[in-house]
Design a protein that fits this description.
10 strands; Rossmann fold; 8 helices; alpha/beta; 7-stranded parallel β-sheet
Length: about 250
């Protein structure tokens, strides 16, 4: 894992977006198409802003999957990740194929089957992700399942995860936060050829410390990123604040 720390969060987001754009351009030049995974949440606001402004990406030859979606939430709900990505990504650039997670599908088992068939057919060039306050990766809350091979699964959200979603202002009350979601699994995320992880803000500092200085294991799901052969972690002055100097220089 390569770590890049920037004082300014927008500079951090721009650097992450530049790296992500280059991965997509390289894949498009090399193989004529590119597939990527997009994350949502407050940590991705500026990253996506800069990514859609990047030049030289033939978006029409790309395929996008996204990490997760709440079960039972409509695509028009203010907290829906489909709505988030429509507003910040798919309405801004002309992505060739968009594979959304339909969390309000009438049959979740059938929806999981659809998603798993779709992603199994497409090698993923890049995953653009963040880290949760509880160290989660996608909606794989601790203790995360590092062994399941199925690309998408049904998960139960833990209390810390639900409190983060409420704290970020997506829901009016904690009780409104759904208790279940469809999530891309840890092993599927790790299959991406490259991973760009963008983590701003002070509230993520403890999770970043656990991810980088604690044990690699299910109790801090994002720690698995340290084992990926091509993962770049972008931090700002606040999210990096609890790290030992030796961690950054390693």
């Amino acid at each position: 894992m390569k770590i890049a720390a920037h004082l300014d969060p927008d500079v951090m987001a721009r650097a992450a977006a530049d790296a992500a754009a280059q991965i997509l351009r390289d894949a498009l030049q090399r193989q004529g198409r590119a597939a990527f995974v997009a994350a949502t949440g407050a940590s991705q606001f500026n990253f996506l802003k800069h990514l859609v402004a990047a030049r030289g990406i033939a978006w029409e030859r790309t395929t996008m999957f996204h990490l997760d979606e709440y079960i039972g939430l409509s695509a028009e709900h203010p907290a829906s990740f489909r709505r988030y990505l429509r507003e910040r990504l798919t309405s801004q650039v002309s992505i060739g194929t968009v594979c959304f997670v339909e969390g309000d599908a009438p049959n979740i088992t059938a929806e999981l089957d659809r998603l798993n068939r779709a992603i199994a057919a497409v090698p993923i060039d890049a995953a653009f992700v963040g880290i949760g306050e509880n160290g989660h990766l996608a909606f794989n809350d601790p203790p995360a399942d590092f062994a399941v091979e199925t690309p998408f699964i049904r998960v139960t959200l833990d209390e810390a995860c639900r409190r983060q979603q409420f704290g970020e202002g997506w829901f009016k009350t904690l009780e409104d936060v759904p208790r279940e979601a469809i999530s891309m699994t840890v092993r599927q995320i790790m299959k991406a050829a490259h991973i760009i992880c963008t983590v701003p803000e002070k509230r993520k500092a403890q999770a970043v410390k656990a991810c980088l200085e604690g044990e690699v294991g299910p109790m801090c799901p994002a720690s698995i990123l340290r084992t990926h052969p091509s993962c770049r972690l972008f931090l700002d002055k606040d999210s990096v604040s609890l790290l030992k100097p030796a961690t950054l220089s390693a």
